[in-house]
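Reviewer 2 asked us to include a model.

Predict the structure of this chain.
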Amino acid sequence: MNLITRVFSGALLLACAGLYGCAGQQSEEVLQQAGNDFQKVKEDSNVLRIAPKDVIRAGESLARADRLSSYWGSGSDVVHYAYLSRRYSEIAREHTEQVLNEERVAKLELERQRLQLALREAKLLSVQQQGKWLEEQIISLATTQTDRGLVMTLGDVLFDTGEAELKSSANRTVLKVVQFLQLNPKRVVRIEGYTDNTGDKQSNLQLSRDRAQAVADMLVDLGIDEKRIKVEGYGDDYPVEANASERGRAQNRRVEIVFSDEKGQLGAAR
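Predicted model (structure tokens):
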């Protein structure tokens, strides 16, 4: 009986030793994995910057698991704290990745805003340069700077004899006026029609008004608000040359576009 007892006891001890060996091997593997995970997050500067508390918790759990691994029968506790350490390391990585993504998105948004601002500034500069160029073109086409304002003259060649309809050759000049007014939305114009002294005075007055109105209508058709346009007809009054010659009469048959200043103030009418 004693022999049986001793044999049984020995077998039990061997079984326990085997189980302990298996448990010990498992806890060592888990502890090693937790240590590897913790080492990775500890060496990652972004993780240390973004998720320092999770790194600390991972380190504390790993240290506790390591201490418990030296005690008999604490394999399950070692596994538990090693698991906690690995979980904290994982949370630290996930949190870091989330914040890094948010930072990348924020950086891209700032870059997008910077590019949009640069484009707006470039466009504004382009508009300003274009406006300056157009103003130079207007000045080059204008006959003179008068007390009435900057005056552009459209000659008689832009109309058929005795007619108020603009020829297609006037399109380029009128288009420059439209572009200039679009880039200078506060400016207004007064369009004045004139004729030579051929024919009766009333007919000349009507023709001068009709020609001025034809120019105004084209500006409106091209998008200029009619409120920015005034129309006057003066007939054969205010000649610029003597009507004694054909050349003089041709110069008197004209339409003048008078531009306001940048604030929209027109000079006095005739």
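Residues 15-105 form one domain. DSSP finds seven helices and five strands in the chain. We have added this to the supplementary material.
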